[in-house]
């Protein structure tokens, strides 16, 4: 397991990939995700949370508008800018308040190297920020590592979670698809972009050492997440409490490259009452590969619950 992960880490950090030898790409893998910045924000800055400066931005109507606030959690070694299309859509077109969070050690958030990076820590950080902002209930959209954090929030902080859109999660460290990863045509560009974006965003006073961040992220991913049925069993299900239990959509792309393809179905099976949502003709980078389609699903997910099983 960890040797496979080391291959992944080497591929993503040393950029020594020889892309000529890769297998034929699937349609979705030929997209190069275009860069997207965050839409205009009402607030961009940090809050002192759990001994770090947690960067966040707020978009759309005020938190007090009566509509459910939606938190966006990004994937590994990226930042909330990667959610630019979806944040604009949810905040402006649908009109729900949006809170975008840069995970600790990522984007504009600082790190505390005296504690390891864990999905549980990320979930505590997001929940502490909600408390700081006096938000009692929220929806969470997470992709990749952010999806794992959303699952951890559902397990440990379910009281704040009205719903979760969990895209491209895994539940054990050995569920990476190395063949699929190596076949991504824009892998080299991706690795370069992750590093240059991180270097541009990381706050002053933090060491600009991307290799150190990569090592801390790898240390986390070699051992986590390590979830089984008992962990998923902590998530209150819609059968137990149709009005308060989180609506969970376990989503993925039909051409998912990085996470093994059975995983989303497994997670769905582990969470009673959750829904499995497969987005067509996209992979792990769906929010950038086909933002309009991703937004259609988000728009449906965000609709107010009408009682009964979720809707
Ligand atoms: C807070 O973070 C700093 C920087 O990593 C660390 O040196 C310090 O020990 C931390 N303090 C606590 C109380 O965890
Ligand atoms: C891994 O990716 C390859 C290449 O896309 C694919 O053929 C294979 O089915 C995937 N394996 C799993 C377990 O997802």
UniProtKB/TrEMBL annotation:
Does the keyword field hold Cytoplasm?
Answer: no
| Source organism superkingdom | Eukaryota
User: What Pfam family is a match, any one?
Assistant: Abhydrolase_6
Family annotation (InterPro entries) = AB_hydrolase, AB_hydrolase_1, AB_hydrolase_fold
Which residue positions does the secretion signal occupy? 1-23
This protein's record includes keyword Repeat: no
Q: Which UniProt keywords are listed?
A: Hydrolase, Signal
Q: Residue ranges of the AB hydrolase-1 domain? A: 70-293
Task: Enumerate the SUPFAM superfamilies for this protein.
Answer: alpha/beta-Hydrolases
Write out the GO MF terms: hydrolase activity
Name of the molecule in the record = Alpha/Beta hydrolase protein
Protein's organism: Apodospora peruviana
């Amino acid at each position: 397991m960890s040797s496979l992960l080391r291959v992944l880490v080497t591929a993503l950090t040393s950029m020594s990939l020889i892309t000529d030898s890769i297998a034929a790409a699937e349609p979705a893998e030929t997209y190069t995700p275009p860069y997207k910045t965050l839409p205009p924000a009402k607030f961009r800055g940090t809050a002192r949370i759990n001994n770090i400066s947690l960067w966040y931005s707020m978009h759309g109507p005020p938190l007090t508008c009566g509509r459910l606030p939606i938190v966006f959690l990004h994937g590994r070694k990226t930042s909330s800018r990667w959610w630019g299309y979806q944040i604009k859509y949810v905040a402006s077109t649908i009109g729900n308040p949006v809170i975008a969070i840069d995970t600790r050690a990522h984007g504009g958030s600082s790190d505390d190297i005296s504690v390891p990076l864990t999905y549980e820590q990320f979930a505590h950080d997001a929940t502490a920020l909600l408390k700081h902002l006096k938000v009692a209930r929220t929806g969470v959209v997470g992709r990749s590592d952010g999806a794992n954090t959303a699952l951890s929030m559902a397990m440990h902080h379910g009281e704040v979670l009205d719903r979760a859109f969990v895209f491209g999660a895994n539940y054990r460290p050995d569920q990476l698809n190395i063949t699929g990863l190596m076949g991504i045509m824009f892998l080299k560009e991706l690795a370069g972009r992750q590093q240059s974006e991180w270097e541009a965003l990381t706050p002053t006073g933090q060491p600009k050492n991307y290799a150190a961040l990569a090592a801390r992220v790898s240390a986390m991913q070699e051992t986590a997440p390590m979830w089984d049925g008992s962990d998923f069993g902590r998530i209150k299900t819609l059968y137990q409490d149709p009005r308060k239990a989180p609506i969970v959509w376990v989503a993925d792309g039909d051409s998912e490259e990085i996470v093994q393809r059975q995983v989303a179905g497994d997670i769905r099976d582990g969470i009673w009452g959750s829904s499995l949502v497969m987005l067509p003709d996209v992979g792990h980078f769906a929010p950038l590969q086909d933002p309009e389609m991703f937004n259609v699903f988000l728009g449906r997910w965000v609709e107010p619950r009408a009682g009964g099983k979720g809707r």
